Amino acid sequence: MSGIALVRKPGPRISEGIVTHIEREPVDYERARVQHDAYVAALAAAGWRPAYAEPADDLPDAPFVEDAVVVSGRLAVLTRPGAPERRPEVESVAQAVRDLGLTVVRIAPPGTLDGGDVLQVGATVYVGRSARTDDDGIAQLAALLPERRVVPVDMTGVLHLKSAVTALPDGTLIGDPRHVELPGLLVPPEEAGSHVVPLGGDRVLMAASAPETAAMLEKRGLDVTKVDISEFEKLEGCVTCLSVLIEE
């Protein structure tokens, strides 16, 4: 598997990003830039060609591009973020996916949907009910993806669904049962171990902050690439939210 990785470089105001469930810590902008470059390089090494959305230096959370768009095949669903201050991020992402030749549709007001609440696993799309995603947004997404089975998921204590659970290449859900109840959940030894980006085949991308989980997955036969995203973790970010992978 390979394709395009939609990403956006962090801007100098990144330290002002929204923090909801953790204590705010100082964010080092220069270190964040270096970490982001290494993250993108890891995706590129796995066959995902980087495509950059336009810089949005006045929008602190803009590098978390996953929240602005949900891609299913060649359809790009532009979201309507639940945090009003994040909604200006969407238009430049819209232009980026148009430039990539995707068909573009939108979540319409008053519904809200953050891409970080959308976990696609085969024909099933799990969508978290959160402070950022409401039932209207979930219903609109289901109507836009009639060929997929959309499953609403209740959760607690985390920003987004993919803050609590993601999926391994074979479809196994990996996540924290303190935050989400789903059948067959593989529980990682670290909270950051809940965040996995399948890169194709048996390859996955994980944060360097989950070394025990990485070792566990390697024992399951997976090829794990670890990246340091500590500056983004200070803003409740994880490896999933810094890119949108688009298969070609």
Task: Describe the structure in brief.
The protein is of the alpha/beta class.
Describe what you observe in this structure.
With 248 residues, the protein is of the alpha/beta class. The chain has a single domain, classed as L-arginine/glycine Amidinotransferase, Chain A (5-stranded Propeller), CATH 3.75.10.10. It is built from 5 helices and 14 strands. The strands form 5 sheets. The protein has a 3-stranded mixed sheet. It has a 3-stranded mixed sheet with strand order 3-4-5, with helices on one face. Strands 6-7-8 form a 3-stranded mixed sheet, covered by helices on one side. It is globular. The model has no long low-confidence stretch (mean pLDDT 97).
Task: Provide tags for this entry.
14 strands; three-stranded mixed beta sheet; L-arginine/glycine Amidinotransferase, Chain A; 248 residues; alpha/beta
Question: Which structural class should the secondary elements be placed in?
Answer: alpha/beta
Q: How many β-strand stretches?
A: 14
Summed up, the domain count is 1
Order of helices and strands: EHEEEHEEEHEEEEEHEHE
User: Which percent bin holds the helix content?
Assistant: 10-25%
Instruction: State which percent range the strand residues make up.
Output: 25-35%
**Widest beta sheet: strand line-up:** 2-1-14
Radius of gyration: 16 Å
Number of helices: 5
> How would a textbook summarize the main sheet?
3 strands, mixed
Average pLDDT score:
97
CATH class: Alpha Beta
